[in-house]
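Hey, can you fold this one?
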Amino acid sequence: MEVVCLDLEGVLVPEIWIAFAQKTGIEKLKLTTRDIPDYHVLMNGRMEILREHGLTLKDIQDVIATIKPLDGAKEFLDKLRAMTQVIILSDTFAEFASPLMKQLGWPTIFCNSLEIDEKGMLSGIKMRQEDGKRKAIEGLRSMGFRTFAAGDSYNDLNMIKIADAGCLFRAPENILKEYPNLALHTTYDGFYNEIEKFVKEGK
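Sure. Predicted structure:
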């Protein structure tokens, strides 16, 4: 049996932090895992910026409430879930994800959670486990699943490398230059066709 594991931001929905940066005008918040490979460094930097500007979890959630899935993403995901099992593996947080999952039809998501202080400020992060995307793929494979993994950022590379098959989706130029051997898709049709081929190979 096959399981497809997808990144969330940049694959199915816009980048949350970029949307928040555009709303607040804080350019440094536009940095994502496409730019900084170490997720802890990235999040510590984000939380420091939020504290400097007095921005709370509610401020972020208010922006998330305005975000819509990428064009074609919901249709792609519906079609994919009709063919095989799909799990979203994301380094986002449960406190961010719920309104996005609702718009996508409540797919299964494995993600992390936030620590919030008495003022509603982000004070820390609770990782489900370190390198959780790779470990999720390892766990699924240990249960006898064939796995396909796809994403667009540095934190997706480990799961793509160890999955039975995988690809990049709309990855930025810096990642494409560093990993030219990884397949790339930029349309949902091409993306679906590659996954469909993988599923049929397992029949």
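Residues 39-53 form the longest helix (15 residues). Let me know if you want another pass with a different chain boundary.
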